[in-house]
Amino acid sequence: MSSVAMALAGIGKNYNPGTLNTWLKGHGGYVSGDLFVWGSVSPLGLSYVGKVANSNIASHLASNNVVILNVHNGGHWVLAHSMSGSTIHVNDPGYSTTSYTLSEIVANNSGLYHVSGGFLGVMIDELEIALNVNGRREKMMEADGGKILVQ
After folding, report:
1. Residue 128 burial by CB count (10 A; 0-12/13-18/19+): exposed, middle or buried?
2. Cα–Cα distance between 103 and 42 in angstroms, integer?
3. Which of 50, 73, 119, 137 has the highest Cβ tally under 10 A?
4. CA 37, 17, 22: angle at the middle one, nearest 5?
5. What would the pLDDT profile of 8-66 be if each residue is shown by its tens digit?
6. Is the dihedral of CA 31, 34, 21, 112 positive or negative?
7. How far apart, in whole angstroms, are the C-alpha atoms of residue 38 and residue 24?
8. Is the pLDDT of residue 112 over 80?
9. Given strand 147-150, what is the order of strands in its sheet?
């Protein structure tokens, strides 16, 4: 759950483990007491796709999908943020570990999310389309409060 809170914070949502835990308790985020329901965070902007094979982790990270890795023989979850060779760089909420190798990831048991609803609205406030012509930068469009203005 802490790794999901980190993923939400990474897409601009204001959640930490405490606030996410409170939200989950009121929105069907747990079953059998404390088992996290992966799909329960869809209304917050992360759509659960399913488990991902270890051989596909790199391509999902390259596609800016959220991958939550299962490590320590199934007893711990971490947020993956990049990969170099067979080393996956992570944010680990329980240890000071910054990376794991593919061989340390529980086979085919990592969670995959697509970023959904509302993320574009966060990003569009920062959007600017520019064109370089003969070394001169010409601004063509920019966002102003979520509206695209043609220059």
Report:
1. exposed
2. 30
3. 119
4. 65
5. 999 999 999 999 999 999 999 999 988 999 999 999 999 999 999 999 999 999 999 99
6. negative
7. 11
8. yes
9. 128-133, 136-144, 147-150
Question: Do residues 88 and 103 make contact, with C-beta atoms less than 8 angstroms apart?
Answer: no
pLDDT, averaged across the chain: 82
Tell me where in the chain the CATH 3.90.70.10 domain(s) lie: 2-117
Q: Reduced to 3 states, what is the DSSP secondary structure of residue 82?
A: strand
**Residues 114-141, mean pLDDT to the nearest whole number:** 47
Which of 54, 57, 29 lies closest to 42 in space, CA to CA? 29
